[in-house]
Structures are given as structure tokens and as C-alpha cells.
Specification:
The protein is built from twelve helices and 21 strands. The chain is of the alpha+beta class and 540 residues long. Strand 9 and strand 10 form a beta hairpin. The model has no long low-confidence stretch (mean pLDDT 87).
């Protein structure tokens, strides 16, 4: 502890810059998030179109001799371009020229580009053309604890070209992340500005065409930068399944934070019938309400729906968006921080959802849907019963030489039905079944306790029951102390097996008798399909 005569010496904490670069780059969940960063930057640069081309490059071997997959990615837009300062923002960590409150002010997004062998930029602004490129391989250099350097040149824009072209070579990502066109387009629609909600929520006229070429594609596809919703259909006389109804966008004033920051939220709510949700990739993962910033979907939060409706699953019939520019996002932009602005927004959004839930149209929708669901369940149950009956009637009949009262007259197809045949044979008094069942439980190890006579002495023991004998070896069975085995048929049985405990089992057949030889014991096997082919004289 310092005394009065000692002085404090200011010590400045050191930042391991290379490690920070690596942590920020690794913090992105998926390689596809490079598309999100690229599209947002093009949008912020007022681009009307952006071209993205992704090609696989030759696999490289790392120091352990393993191959890693790399990609070549080119992003070209017709936006405002960058000047020298903005080039610095692109490469720097923690710098940004973005407007306060918008996504991108942290200066983290473009750091995902560093997971590559090289970055080059050609951009045009203010009559100048700037070319910039990394001087060393960014990712390998960072892993050595060194900040990768870049250089740039400024010259006149003689050609009059517009926009920015960024090339990322040797981007470290599995090819599979960009090979599925549907997966990539769904990501663009649901996680990037390529699914902008501005037009849907505020009627904005702004658009940006996205031209996309993925590995294996000979040409490009074009997407609009809109989250396109289906046409409305609110006539419930046609059934709730086709209903699509949007409520007018609500503009909520959520109040002030302790720092006098005004929190406002725009909320759009849609109610959707089961068939009307077909445009949603995954109704369990994507329905409900999304928290948004810059009119991009960031995080789904259905606790608000649960509080508003008093139930857990009503959210599946809603698709809602709540955009708040005061939301603060995590470094990887995948979640909203739970701060004061967040809490104010959540409170106001929940109140609005509660008012939507009480709307007469919504209440009628769920009342009607409940009636339809109950009717559908009854119809489905009846249909399943009819199908089971039809399937049963198609089964071959039992070919037996005896008439056994109450016995199944169709060939059994599972263990339970095999048990019914066995019990019927015992009841009928067939001499080939020389035991009775005392207890049966298929859920507790060995199936049944049996009673039988052994050399004139009444005994109890254990029975294992299977539909086919080969099933006995499909999972772990303990044959210790098993006195008898019953099956309907043998199935594709082998001569020898090894059990999980290492013991060996041999199958042998002598005439009409079947046995399993286990250690020093010999376990008789009763094959019911064969035993039923006996004469009526065997019935007592």
C-alpha cells in the first residue's frame, strides 16, 4: 500500500493489437457474414447495384499437412466510393465514419476480410481513383502477432469510373458455405440489407440490385434489396390457412434514457395462416418478432409474444419486425445488447403486441383456427385408423394346421403381435408350448417371467421374446439365466455372434429344434411360425 510520501506512476495498459484483430475476425459466426458486411457498406455508399462473385481456389496445406478450403470473393458496386481517410477506416480496427446510431460505427465489420491471403481495393471518389492492397497475407501475419500493413496510391479518375471494387483472395472458409444457392439467398434475405425492411415498414422507394454468382454457377442471379411480403388475403371464409394480414406500421415513442437519448421504434406485425407461411424458411426458427436495426433483422425475441398472448406457441402465426436505431449491437452484430435503450424498447413493443393480440380480427382468427385444428385432428385420426385397417387386411393370413380361438389370423409384424400369438397358443393348449407366462414387460430388460416343468419339478425362469431371432443380436441383450427364447421367425440368422460383453453365441438347428449355445448353456428357441404348422391332434 502506498504511503503519503509515495507517488503514483501512471501505467498505460498495453493492447495486443494483433490478438484483438484475430478475436474480432473470429467473432463472426459464419463466413457468409462477409456478404452482410459487403452489402451494408455498398448500401451506405448509396449504391444502386452490387455484383458479388465467389469462386473456390486451390486447397492449401497447413503446417500439419491438412488441406484447408479457400475462396476468392469480389464485391463491386456503383456507390460513392472512398477517399483516403475512408480507406483507413476500412483497414483500421475501431474507426468508422458511419453516422452515429447506424450499424458500422464500431469499425469491426470489415475485419472479417482479414481471414484471407490478401485484400485489394479500387475505388473512385471526388475525381480521384485510389488503389489499396495488403502488403502481406493478413491472416497468417496476424497469427504471428504482427499487424498486417497495407499501401495505397491516389491518382486522377481518368476513366470516370464509379464505385468500389474489393477483391478478397484466399478467404478462409469451407466451399460448402457458398455452394447452396437457396441457403445463400435465404441468408441475404433474412440477415443482410438485402432483406431491407424500409420499403415494407416505411414505404421507402430506395432499392439496390444484388447480382450474385456462386461457385458452380455459369451466370448470375439478381435479387432486390427488399424483404418481399406476399399479397394480403384476410377473408377467413376461405379458411385461416390462407390468411395474410398486415397491421399498419406503428411508430412508438419509448421514452428517454438516463442520458437523455430518445428511443423510438417502428413495429410492423403480420398474422399468417399455415399455408401463407410458405415463404418463411423455417417456421419454428424464423416466425415471431425480430428486433431490427438499419431495418435489418438482428435477433428474434419471442418472449414478448409469450407475455402478450399468455401462451408459448401463438408466435408461430405471426411475423413481426421492430426497428430501433438506438439498439446497440454486439461486436459480431448478431445480437442486441440488453441496455437501457433495449429495455425501454422491449416494454413499448410488448404493449403494442398486446394490443395486436386483443384485436378482434386476431381473436376471430385463432378461434376459427382452433376449430379447424380440432376438426383436422379428428379427420387425421380417422384417416390413420382407416389406413391401419387397410394395411392389416393386406397382410397374409396365418397358415396353420390348427384352429386357435382368439388368435391373430394375420401374420404378426412386431414383438407385441408375436406375444399375442404366443399367448393364444398357450391358451389353446398346444403341446409344443411347454410353459406359461407369469409376467411380461418389454421396457425392463428381459421380457417375461415364465413358469414351466423341468423333470417333474415346477420352476420359474426368464423368457426373451423377439419378432425375428436375428433381432436378438441387433442390440445389447444379456443371455445369462435365460431359459427360453421365442420368435415368430428366424430371419436372416447367422451361425455365430459376439455379444457386447465379449461372450460368443452359436446358433444350431437339429431337425425341428433350434438352440442358442451360450457359454456352457443351451437355450431352446421356439419358432412360432413353424410350431403352428402342426396337426389338430396336438391340441389337448
Amino acid at each position: 500500500m502506498l504511503n503519503d510520501t509515495q507517488e503514483f506512476k501512471g501505467q498505460r495498459p498495453r493492447v495486443n493489437e494483433a490478438r484483438e484483430f484475430i478475436e474480432i475476425a473470429k467473432d463472426f459466426k459464419r463466413p457468409q457474414e462477409l456478404l452482410r458486411e459487403a452489402l451494408s457498406n455498398s448500401w451506405d455508399a448509396n449504391a444502386s447495384s452490387v455484383n458479388i462473385t465467389i469462386d473456390p481456389t486451390s486447397a492449401q496445406r497447413n503446417t500439419k499437412g491438412r488441406k484447408k478450403q479457400l475462396l476468392s470473393i469480389t464485391i463491386q458496386d456503383d456507390g460513392d466510393g472512398m477517399n483516403a481517410d475512408e480507406i483507413g477506416y476500412f483497414f483500421n480496427l475501431g474507426d468508422s465514419h458511419k453516422a452515429a446510431g447506424s450499424i458500422g460505427t464500431k469499425g469491426h465489420g470489415t475485419k472479417i476480410y482479414y481471414k484471407s491471403e490478401g485484400i485489394s481495393i479500387a475505388t473512385h471518389k471526388g475525381g480521384n481513383t485510389i488503389t489499396a492492397e495488403t502488403e502481406v497475407a493478413p491472416w497468417e501475419t496476424l497469427k504471428k502477432g504482427i499487424i498486417p500493413t497495407y499501401r495505397y496510391t491516389v491518382g486522377p479518375n481518368i476513366s470516370g469510373a464509379r464505385g468500389t471494387t474489393i477483391r478478397v483472395t484466399g478467404f478462409d472458409a469451407p466451399h460448402s458455405e457458398f455452394e447452396d444457392l437457396n441457403d445463400v439467398t435465404q441468408y441475404i434475405r433474412w440477415a443482410t440489407i438485402g432483406g431491407s425492411l424500409q420499403r415494407t415498414m416505411l414505404g421507402s422507394a430506395r432499392k439496390m440490385l444484388i447480382n450474385l454468382k456462386l461457385p458452380g454457377m455459369t451466370g448470375k442471379i439478381t435479387l432486390n434489396s427488399d424483404f418481399e411480403l406476399p399479397d394480403q388475403q384476410s377473408d377467413m371464409s376461405k379458411g385461416t390457412s390462407s390468411v395474410i394480414k398486415s397491421f399498419p406500421t406503428a411508430h412508438l415513442d419509448c421514452g428517454l434514457t438516463s442520458e437523455e437519448k430518445q428511443v423510438k421504434v417502428d413495429v410492423l406485425v403480420m398474422i399468417l395462416g399455415d399455408e401463407a407461411r410458405s415463404f418463411i424458411p423455417d417456421t419454428y426458427r424464423d416466425t415471431g418478432i425480430w428486433l431490427c436495426k438499419d431495418f435489418m433483422m438482428i435477433e428474434r425475441n419471442n418472449k414478448m409474444w409469450e407475455e402478450a398472448t399468455g401462451g408459448q406457441y401463438y408466435y408461430r402465426s405471426f411475423l413481426a419486425f421492430a426497428n430501433c436505431q438506438e439498439f446497440d449491437l454486439t461486436a459480431n452484430r448478431n445480437d442486441v445488447r440488453q441496455d437501457e435503450a433495449h429495455d425501454l424498447a422491449i416494454e413499448s413493443i410488448t404493449k403494442h403486441l398486446t394490443s395486436i393480440w386483443k384485436d378482434s380480427f386476431v381473436q376471430t382468427f385463432f378461434t376459427t383456427k382452433s376449430s379447424e385444428d380440432n376438426s383436422s385432428k379428428r379427420s387425421k385420426a380417422i384417416s390413420e385408423m382407416d389406413k391401419r385397417l387397410q394395411d392389416y387386411q393386406k397382410r397374409p393370413r396365418l397358415d396353420t394346421g390348427v384352429k386357435v380361438l382368439g388368435m391373430l389370423n394375420r401374420v404378426p409384424e412386431n414383438e407385441a403381435e408375436t406375444l399375442l400369438v404366443l399367448q393364444a397358443m398357450i391358451t389353446a393348449g398346444l403341446k409344443s408350448i411347454d410353459f406359461s407366462i407369469g409376467e411380461y414387460n418389454a421396457q425392463r430388460g428381459t421380457d417375461a417371467i415364465i413358469e414351466f416343468m423341468d423333470k417333474g419339478v415346477a420352476r420359474t425362469g426368464w423368457l426373451e421374446l423377439v419378432h425375428q431371432l436375428r433381432n436378438l443380436f441387433a442390440w445389447d441383450h444379456n443371455l445369462d439365466r435365460i431359459q427360453k427364447i421365442v420368435c415368430w421367425e428366424l430371419g436372416d440368422i447367422k451361425d455365430a455372434y459376439s455379444l457386447d460383453d465379449g461372450t460368443k453365441v452359436r446358433y444350431e438347428r437339429s431337425g425341428k429344434k433350434h438352440v442358442l449355445l451360450h457359454d456352457v448353456s443351451s437355450i431352446p428357441v421356439y419358432v412360432l411360425s413353424e410350431l403352428l404348422k402342426v396337426s389338430e391332434t396336438e391340441v389337448e
